[in-house]
Design brief:
Chain lengths: ~120, ~100, ~675
Amino acid sequence: MVALSVAAVLAVFLLYTSIAGGTSASVRPSQLAGHAGESVQLAGLVLGPVRGDPYEGGMRFRLRDVDGKATVPVVYTGTKPDLFRVGRHVYLKGELKNGLFVGERNSLVTKCPSKYVPKRPQT
Amino acid sequence: MSGTTFALLLGGMLAAACVVYVARPFLREPVLAADDDRLEQLDAGARERIALIEERDRALAALKELEFDHRTGKVSDEDYRALVSTLRADAARALKALG
Amino acid sequence: MAELGRAALIVCLGLSLYALLAGSLAAWAGRRRLAASAQNALVAAFAAAAVAGGVLLSALIRHDFSFVYAADFSSRKLPLLYTVSAFWGGQAGSLLLWLVVLTGMSTVAVIFNRYAAREVIAWAVPVLALVASFFAFLVVAIASPFATQAAPPDGAGLNPSLQNPYMVAHPPLLYLGYVGLAIPFAFAMGALLAGRTDERWLVATRRWTLAAWAFLGIGQLLGSHWAYVEVGWGGYYAWDPVENAALMPWLAATAFLHSVMVQEKKGMLKIWNVILVVLAFCLSIFGTFLTRSGIVNSIHSFTQSSIGPWFLGFIVAITLGSLALVLYRLPMLRAKTRLESAVSREAAFLYNNLLLVALCLTILWGVTFPIVSEALRGESVTVGPPYFNFFLRVFGLPLLLLMGIGPLVAWRRASISSLRRMLVWPALAALVTGGVLLVFGAGSSLPGLITYSFSAFVLTSIVIEFARGTEARRALAGGSRLRAFSDLVARNRRRYGGYVVHAAIVLLAIGIAGSSVYQTTREAKLAPGESMEAAGYTLTYRSLRTERRGNHTAVRAQVDLYRDGHRVARLAPGKNRYAAEQQVSNEMAIHTSWLRAEDVDVIANQVNPDGSVYFKVLVKPLVNLIWLAGLVFLLGSVIALWPDARESRRYAERYEPAATARA
């Protein structure tokens, strides 16, 4: 009986992961080329200058590889997290279109350092 | 006395107190025959007895619960009649095994 | 004074190691004095840890910034309450708190049981000492709270998001829960090591498990409430790994709490129970690891973090070790009775176990998959709320229904006729509720409608249980209904306390359904004087106000909320700017409409230079049922935990008759 239930659970699980899109690939700017036209989650460091209004017309900035040099221009509309600033590590969902990464509405989040780590860098 | 020395002194006292507390069982009974120093462990007979007691308590509790379930309507009259004799037999067997 | 702290921790480590080694030897060779000595070492370890804790606490309160930890997590302007909470504001301090709570609980558990089950205790002591040694090692060698420096004039201050009463209470409550699960784990391992398959360890740790589980539940609800009122995005649970870290052990512990009832009544599911308690404890260590090691951010920060690899090693060692022990004792644990029918209370508990464990494991997979994927393929994925919400519905809705069916099914074998008889009223209630709600528009969300219908089912079945029980009691003993009711509950606190907890879970389900799938969201940019609409409410932006307070500057948009032409509230959403910490926090304004049973949340997303503001308004029906559920949960847990003298005596006679005869 237990075996049957386990099999049922596995079936539901596999069904879900194959159909639904609960997971999305998380890429860096340097990896974007391989995912053109696909909805992905882009992670990187914010590079200035930051122009525009995210709530109207779109905010434009560049994202750089966290440990690399590749950058990509980004346009984003939606809620801007309070912790957003140049140099922050951020994530947003979207698609690369003609060399410009168009962010999905309200998908921008900052990966702030853990609440439990002090602000000063520790040696 | 500097702060550091004082702190280390307190630390040393803490350590000493702990060591004494840890050694206490040996200090209270310094000389003991091996037999008197046995940890209380249950032998097979005692374990068997506990298993039988648990079985007896389970059987009695099951009977009590059956009565209550019957009273609250969870178990119908016919189901009750079918089960009660089985449970009574279980309980009787468990009581007999305990002697 | 830092030297005292360091010395105390070294003493604690030494004592824990002694308790581990001497305790193991004493239990294996059956030496009484050595076992008592090991027990004393565990108690002394608590004293040493407490001294270390006292040193850290005093450094914080005295604003002694020569302690690096105090300088990193507190500042002179910080209110006293938050200065105290800075103790667990950082990694090293929270590890120390773990150690203090663990050794403290071990001391209590061992002292309370010192005349009982000597052989189980003899093995439980080294198991607890093993865990204590690990944490003591971490705070001595890897992440010490007692690093010193030349004292700067002021500290860096506590992260502003931690500066509120909820975040003061949340970590300690969770820790009481996490650490509390170590006790049943140690006793279970102790029983297995001693080769005992009876219920002694269960009986000894029943209240510990229940209390730890209750703390975990309340701690999580407080955390969610904090997220709702303080973080202010309008939600209360984001399926963040750190949130899931507490949910997983709670689910495993829930399964364990239920499953032990079957062992108690039928002697079955012994293997399930030891595995569940191992799972619950390992998940609680994993949860601590997730929250404090940085692995959440990325695998890179994990490998760079100092404690990450140690924690992972410890978790793997404990998991493998416990499972090996269970495997070794497997023949002893096999039940003699088989499951008679797929429609019985035993079967219902089994399905309960399966569903809870399935939900727990899918959450675990969702949390670890990104990490595993990044480690193996170099490419990371994110697992978002859609994944978790899907499985919450797939497993959670059947669980909800089972809460209503289980208590009404008979043991051993339930006939279709008795099932039909017992379930007709709850089923009717569910159908009627569903139908009525459909008319009122709840059909916009199928899972929501199902949740409400199932909730009606469960609530009806709970009421029936209480009502029929009271009647049966009254038929037996006479007296008033009230008397019969209190008698009923008093005689079976675990069962009826449990039903109250079930009711709390139902309220939780209703609250979650209402505030998620039936919520309304509207966004707009407003200049002073302009208005926006949301779900029948009108929001008018009046003016902007800036104020300097204590350690921050508050910017607030003055807003009026109207309904049907009447003003129902004056709200002030905005932002706080913290000087010392250089951070901005969002201050969401909440208006609770008791009459309409919904919350109106107003967020000021961005204040523009020209004075206009981007607003986001959320109308969340029934959200306050979630917090009410917390209170009901607490009530149910207290009832279930209430000491029962008659029951305690029965157990004492059963297991330690010699001791009872002497007493």
